[in-house]
Amino acid sequence: MAIVGNLPKALGLTTRKVVAIQAAITGTGAIITPLTNIDPGSAQVTVQDAAITVPTDVASVSSVTDAPGTVNVVVVELEAAANAIETAARQVGLLCTGN
Question: Does the reported pTM lie above 0.85?
Answer without folding.
Answer: no
